[in-house]
Amino acid sequence: MTSAGISSFNTTMAAPVHADMFTRLVALRCHFHEHPELRFQETATQTTFALTSLTNPVSPRRTLPVAPAQVRPLLLFASSCLSSAGLVVNVYGPTTTTTRDGLRCIAFCGDMDTLPITERNPSLAYASRIGGAAHMCGHDGHMTLLAGFACFLQRAALANTCVRLLFQPAEEGHFGAVQMIKDRCIDGVDELYGYHNAPFSLGSVHDKPGAIMSHGSKFTISVNVPGGYSSAPHQTAVTRSSPLGTIVVALQSIASRNVAAAESAIISIGTIHGGEADSAIPSTMRMTGTGVSEAGLPLCASEDFSYYLQQHPGCFFMLGTVEVGEAQNRQLHSDTFDFNDKVLPLAVRLFLEIAQHRLACELFSPVEMAAIYTP
User: 40, 115, 122, 225: least surrounded by Cβ within 10 Å?
Assistant: First the structure.
């Protein structure tokens, strides 16, 4: 694990009592940023989190309103999903029953996969070591939040309940949430919660009843006709670059001519491929892209967390990471993006507040919560 870049971590959003813990979490985040793994290949990431979660479990540090002899000890249990690179970690509080079946359980999700993009952040000492794979959507920060959340849960009075941590693979367009559901990773869960970093002002929280993100879809267009000599396009049945360029322009009229003015839709071309030699007109060219639609939503992007919410109630929210005047790019899916570590203390406290509110218990006192994060 690298510690590169840790010295620049500003802990002004974390109380001094926990600054050392958050510095270690940033080191963990930098490690995952430096060693990204693509969809359904997150095995090293999965192993690291399993070992982290099961190493040195901490007994609850607070007094429970039951006699010690009646309490079963706190337990962490991690298991890999059967047919994916996902990971489930159950944090069970001390119980006064002989079985943990039927305990109220709420789940928190963080995605682990990367984008198939080559990072261009030369100033980052912890930039991706893997060509064609980089954490350009902040998933390294999302799973690090779950790790920090787990650390605090182990120190809380989590009695007669269960908190489940879902480390999910393949969120980037490959429906990892669907695979987690098929693997029965959310069986026994009562509610689910998740978040995504977003290019809004640092520390701002964005949510609303109903849909918060847009519907997304992917498409592929191929143009296939006989190729030819680049110096003799008049002898070629169709010059590939001409219809392809026409298609790109024409695609932009779909939204303007088919979507009401009060609504919005975006069609974007992400890749264009074709040809092998500069002196030959290719016989095949291919483009891929995405289409998204939204109506008054905080972020025009899509997330497969919605599949969880089709199974159980819950909430998904946005957390802003942009500082005024900073040089670092926080725009998602850019090849110069980097997650803002300063938001981690707030994110951890938000998850803890949600957990204690929905489980109807006091995990930490208001003073202790303030020691984790204070605006």
Answer: 122
The radius of gyration of the chain's CA atoms, rounded to the nearest angstrom, is 24
Return the number of other C-beta atoms located less than 10 Å from residue 53's C-beta: 22
Q: What is the pLDDT of residues 313-328, one digit of tens each?
A: 999 999 999 999 998 9
Q: Are 198 and 321 in contact (CB under 8 A)?
A: yes
What type of residue is 244? L
Place of tokens 């029965």: 184
Count of residues in the chain = 375
- Write the DSSP assignment of 97-109 as a string of letters: SS--TT-EEEEEE
Q: List alpha helices for 42-185, DSSP H.
A: 43-54, 139-153, 176-182
List phi, psi (to 5°) of 177: -65, -40
Counting Cα atoms < 13 Å in the Cβ hemisphere of 90 gives 22
Residues 92 and 103: beta-carbon distance below 8 Å: yes
Tens digit of pLDDT for each residue in 58-89?
A: 333 333 333 333 333 344 555 555 456 888 88
Per residue in 147-185, pLDDT (tens digit) is: 899 888 877 767 678 899 999 998 888 888 998 999 889
As a whole number of angstroms, the distance between CA 107 and CA 168 comes to 12
Angstrom CA distances, 170 to 180, 189, 269, stand at 10, 21, 21
Q: Do domains 18-54+74-214+297-372 and 217-292 have the same CATH topology?
A: no
Spatial CB neighbours of 98, under 8 Å, sequence gap ≥ 6: none
What is the reported pTM? 0.80
Measure Cα distances from 295 to 216, 239, 251, 301 in Å. 13, 39, 20, 12
Long-range contacts of 183-188 (CB under 8 A, 24+ apart): 183/81, 183/82, 183/83, 183/84, 183/86, 184/82, 185/81, 185/86, 185/88, 186/107, 186/308, 186/311, 186/312, 188/105
CA distances 153 to 133, 164, 171, 194, 272, Å, are: 32, 11, 25, 16, 47
18-54+74-214+297-372, what's its fold? Answer: Aminopeptidase (3.40.630)
Q: According to the CATH classification, is domain 217-292 in 3.30.559.10?
A: no
**Which residues are bridge partners to 92 per DSSP?**
75, 162
What is the residue extent of each domain of the chain?
A: 18-54+74-214+297-372, 217-292
